[in-house]
Design brief:
Strand order of the largest sheet: 1-2-3-9-10
Number of strands: 10
Helix content: 25-40%
Number of helices: 7
Order of helices and strands: HHEEHEHEEEEEHHHEE
Length: about 230
């Protein structure tokens, strides 16, 4: 995969968000690009109050807590001025995590050989959900070798990226091992990854990357933020 600055900045996301999340993404994407980051996903959740989660990454796929802080400081005044979300909400900036979303063509090529879960917007050959080994891309289609194909079905399928509702990596030992090798902080992440359950390891990795603060909607110009970082 070409991770050069130009290719990194210009490659569009092919799997995007609807509604309020799309409004947030439209504001966040150019701000992040100016900082040298790339938007991965925006999710607006109403659980335990409204939370706006923005996943972003550097060209190597990492996003340290210092990067999250930089992005948060740059995005906060933009959201203050535009108010893309009505009412009070918490802004959360994080790395994509190990079992990351796949949103660009290069994501599917970069993680070829790993297992992914893909959900389509509409049924394809009678099914909307697919799980299997990524085999790379063919134009704007993803080649997937299904994990448990039905009897008589072709184990390999071509899935159009434009018709995907969601795609993400499945946490496996092989994926964790590769993520540790790629990480600049491999030893620290390996220490965090110790434990009996893969899902717990992933949660710890993502949690330590997060920077978040409270944001209360109101008239522009008022002091509406109370910053906090997990662990403080």
């Amino acid at each position: 995969m070409n991770d050069g600055p130009t290719a990194f900045a210009e490659e569009p996301r092919l799997i995007t968000e609807p509604g309020r999340a799309a409004r947030v993404a439209a504001l966040a994407e150019p701000v992040l690009a100016d900082l040298g980051y790339r938007l991965v996903r925006v999710r607006v959740s109403g659980a335990a109050g409204c939370t706006v989660q923005i996943m972003a990454e550097r060209p190597d796929g990492s996003m340290a807590i210092e990067d999250c802080e930089v992005a948060s400081r740059a995005l906060s005044p933009v959201f203050d001025a535009s108010d893309p979300i009505e009412g009070a909400y918490r802004l959360e900036i994080s790395s994509p995590g190990i079992d990351r979303p796949l949103v660009r063509r290069s994501d599917f090529d970069r993680y070829a050989g790993h297992v992914a879960h893909i959900e389509m917007l509409a049924p394809l050959d009678g099914r909307k959900r697919f799980r299997g080994e990524l085999l790379g891309t063919q134009d704007l289609w993803v080649r997937l070798r299904r994990t448990h194909p039905a009897a008589g079905d072709n184990p390999e399928v071509l899935l159009p990226i434009d018709d995907m509702a969601e795609a993400r990596l499945v946490l496996t030992d092989a994926l964790i091992a590769e993520s540790l090798r790629r990480s600049k902080h491999g030893e620290k992440l390996e220490e965090r990854a110790a434990g009996p359950h893969a899902s717990g390891r992933q949660h710890k990795y993502r949690e330590r990357q997060e920077h978040q603060h409270g944001h209360v909607g109101g008239a522009p110009g008022k002091d509406r933020r109370a910053n906090q970082r997990k662990g403080d």
